[in-house]
From TrEMBL, chain B:
Keyword Zinc attached: yes
Keywords: Metal-binding, Zinc, Zinc-finger
Pfam families linked: SWIM
Protein name as it appears in the record: SWIM zinc finger domain-containing protein
UniProt keyword Zinc present: yes
Top-level taxon in the UniProt lineage: Bacteria
Amino acid sequence: MDSPGPAEGAGPGHWTPPRTSSEGGAPMGEGDEGYGEWQELVGAALLGTDRRRGGGPAGSPEALLDAAAVHTVRRRAGLRPAGARPRPEPAPRDPRPAPPEAAGRRLAQLLAGRTGAGSGGGGGRRGSAPDLTELLPQWLAAAARHGYRAPAALVPALLDAARARTDLRPQALALAGTRGLWLARMNPDWRFALRGGAGGGELPDVTDPSAVERLWEEGLFAERVALLGAVRAHEPAAAPRLLATTWGSERAEDRLMFLDSLRVGLSLEDEPFLEAALGDRSRNVRATAAELLSALPQSALAGRMAERALACVGPEGVAPPAECDGGMLRDGVVKRPPAGRGERAWWLGQLVEAAPLSCWRERFGGLGPAEIVALPVATAEGWTEELHAAWCRAAVRQRDPDWSRALLGPASAPPAAGPGTASLAERAKLLETLPDGERAEWVAEFVRAHGLSEAFQLLGVCVVPWAGALGRAVVDALDIAREAGSYPWSFSGVMGLAERCLDPSEAGRLEALTAAAEEPPDASPGAAAYWAEAFQRLVATLRLRAAMLSELAPA
Amino acid sequence: MTEQGVRWTAEQVLALAPDDASRKAGGRLGGAGPWSQIGGSASGSVWGLCKGSGSNPYRTVVDLTGPAYKCSCPSRKFPCKHALGLLLLWSAEGVGEPGEAPDWAAQWLADRAAKAARPAGAAAGPVDEEGARRRAERRAARIGAGVTELEQRLADLLRGGLAGQEHAGYAAWEETAARMVDAQAPGLAGRVRELGTIPSCGPGWPARMLEEAALLHLLDRAWMGVTGLPDQLAATVRNRVGLPASGEGEAVRDRWLVLAQYDSVSPDGRLTTRRIWLRGLAGGRPALVLDFGPPGRPPGLALPVGLVLEAEMRFRPGSAGLRADLGERFAAAAPCTEVPAGVGTQAALEAYGAALRDDPWLESWPVVLGPVVPIPGELGWQLADAEGTSALPVPLTGAGSRSRGGLWQLAALSGGGPVTVFGECGHRGFTPLTAWQPDSSEPVALS
C-alpha cells in the first residue's frame, strides 16, 4: 500500500492519514454541525445540499463550507509523513576523480549550448561566436584521456545529450559512468544507455567458467557483447568456443551483431568459427563471415578467393568469371548484381576485393603495388575501373598502406587522374590506412595543389589537432580564398572543421587575419567584413579550445 | 582574497544573466582580451573599459553590494554582457589591489551611495491623509460587495452540487473572477480563476474543489470580520484578498543566505514573477522576496543561489511573516561555505502546520530538508528520511510543481544516498529547489 498520489475520491493529501481519520468520525468541533468524515463532506458537496435527504439546518451550503474549511485547515496542519517506498540500490562508487571545477562549469555550458546553438544558423552566416555544440565531443574526448567522471549534477544533461546525438553516445556514457547507468535503469528515456556497447553492470572474472557461462546464458545483449570482448581479450580462442555453445539458438540479427563484434581484434583464432558461419541460414551472417575471413589474408577463404582472382587477372589481361558457382556462393559472393551493373564485372569485383593483396606481386612478376596499378592492364576491355575499385576496397579492408599509397597516387595530381579512384569518399578511406603523419602530409599537399573545395572529406580523416604543415596549408588556402573575393560561406564546412581541428596554438598567427581587410576590386560586396568575422570566430574558437583543454588539466 | 570581498563563482555570476544570449555573450567577454583599466574599490565595486566595435570603449561599473550595474553600451538588457563579462573576469582572476574609481565610475557610485543613505520613506511626497482614508474606505466597501457576491456564488455552487461542474466549463468562473477584479480584490479573483480550472484537472477533483471553495469561503468570512481579528491575521487576510501591505514591517538584520531563486510566468504571459528564498544564518528566519518583470523583460533583482548578503530585511505584516523587502546592505555578497542544517520530514510538516496558524491559506513553507534520500518512481517521487521509514511525496503536476529534469538532477546528486535539499513543503508535498551534494558546500539549483 504505497501508492503515492491521492487516490480516487479520497481526501487530497491522503498520503498522510489525517489525525481525524483515526478518531472514527468523531465530531470535529463547532464547524461540523452534523458533518462527519471528509468523505461525507465531499459526497454532500457533489450531490448538492438541495438534494440532500433530511435537509434541516445542518444541510445549509454555508454549514457545509464551514465544516469543509475547518477540515481542510486541520488536515493540512496535521499532516504526517507517508511511509517510504523501497529506496533504490545505491549507485556503485565511481573511483575516477571529478574534473576540476572550471572544467565542470565548461561542460555545463557546452551541454546547455547544445539545444540553442544549432537552430540559429539557417542563413549560412554564423557570426563571430564559437559554436559550442561542436566542441562537446572534444571536451568529452579530452576528459576521457584524463580519466575523469562526470560531475553528478550534470549526468542527466549528459544522458539527454547522448540520447539526442548517437555520435556522442559512447563518450558521453563513458563519462557518465556507473552513475549514468544507475540513473538509466530508473528512467525509460535513458534506456538506450543500458543497450549501449559499454555494457551495464560489472563483468564477471573471465577465468571463472561458471560465472562466464551464467552471464552468457542470462545476460542482456549488451552485457553478452561486453563479456565476449573480455573473454577474447583474455584468451582469443575461448571466444569462439563460448559463441558456439549457444550459436544454434541465437536469433539471426543477434548472430550478425556477435559476428560484427569480432571485427575488433580479428585474428586467425576466429577462422574456424567464421568458416563454419559461411554455412549459416542467414545470408547476412554468411556475407559478414566471408567479409571478415577475407580481411585475414592467411585464411583459407582468402586463399580460395586468391585462386579465383588470380585466374581472372594477370599481366596478360582480365577475364572475368563466366559464372558464379556454388563454391563462390558459399564463400560469400553475391550472385545478383545491383541494377545497372553487369554480372561478370560484379563477380570480378567481389573476387578481387576478397583476395589478399599480397597475391598480386608474384602474378605480376615481382612488381610492387605502384607499378601494378600503373600497368595498362585490361584497358582495352574496359575492366580497369572495376579492377582498381576492387583493389581500393581490398586495401581498405586489409588495411594495407602500400597498396593505399599506390592507389592514391601523388597528392598533387588532379583527383580525376588518380590511379585508384576519383571518389573522395574512397580516397578518404584509403588515407585512413596510412600512418598519421603521412596522412596529414598527403592532405596538406592536396590542399596546396587543389585548394579547399574538394578537401573536406580528406580533412575529416586527419588526426586532431592537425599537424603543423596541414594546419598552415588550410589557413593559407582560406586566406587565398578570401583574397579571391568569394564569400566565406562557400567554405563554411572547412571553416567549421578548422575551428574544431586546428591546433589551438595557431590562434596567435591567425590574429592578423581577423582585421577587416580592404575589399579586392572584384570582390563580392561585403565579403571582406564577413571574412574578418569568420576568422574572428576561428580565433575565438581556438582560444576557447585552448582554455577548455587547460581547464581539464588536473590542478 | 581581494578587498572586494570573497569573489563569486562564475556560476553565481552567470545566474544574473537576463537570458541565454547574454549568458553566452558575457562568457565570451570574461577573458582579459577586450578589457582595459579594470579595477575595484574596497567598498565593493569593480569597473573596466571594454573594447567594442566602435572607437570608444564601453564604460562598465558594477556595484557588488547590489548588485547594480552601469554601462555606456546601448544594450537594454540588464545586466548587459559587458557587466557580466567584467564580473566573470573578476570571479576568475580578481581585479588587483583596491583603488580609486575613475571619474566616470566614481560619479555613479557616489549617486548610489547617496540614494542608499536616504531613509526609505522619504521619497514619498506629503500625504493627504484624509483623502487616503476616504479612498481606503471606498475600496473596502467595494471589496465587501464583491465578497458578498462571491459568498452567494459559493452557496449556489454547494446547493446545486459539484457534480455538474465537470461539464460546466470555467467561463462562469472567469466571469466571477472578472467581477472580483472590478471589486478591486485581485487576490479573490486569482483564487476564483484557480477554482474554475479544478474540474478539468483529473481524478480526485471534487475533493480538491471542495477544499478550495472552503478556503475561499473562509477568506470571505474572515474579510467580513476583519476588524475583529488580531493584527497579524487581519494583515494576512487583507494581503490574501489583494490589498497592498500597509504599515511598516519588522526590520531584521542578519547574514541572509540565498536558498533558491526561480521565475514563473503568469498564464497570460504578461508578468514574470521571481521568487527568491532566503534564510537568516544567525536568526534562522526564512524570507521570501518577490520581484516582477513586464512582458519580455526579466525581473531586475537577481540574487544567485549560495550567496550570503549582510543586509536588513524588512518583513511585511501578515502572510506568516514570509514576505520581505531587501533593505540596506552592509557588505558585498559572498559565497556561503557551509551546507545549511536540514530537518526531517516530520519536522518539515510541523513547520508548515505551525505556519498555517498565522496564514491558513498558505500553500507551503520553506524548509531545508536533510539528510533525505530521493526515491524515484513512475507513479511519483518521494524524499525519504535517511534513517527512518517516513517520506514526503513530490508533487509532479499542478501548481508549485517543477520540471522532472530537476528531480533527475537531484537523483543524480544523491546516487541513492542522503542529500540536503531546500524546497517548499506544503499540503501537496515537498517541491525541491536546491540541493547540496554530500561532499561539497556548493549548492546546485535544480532546473
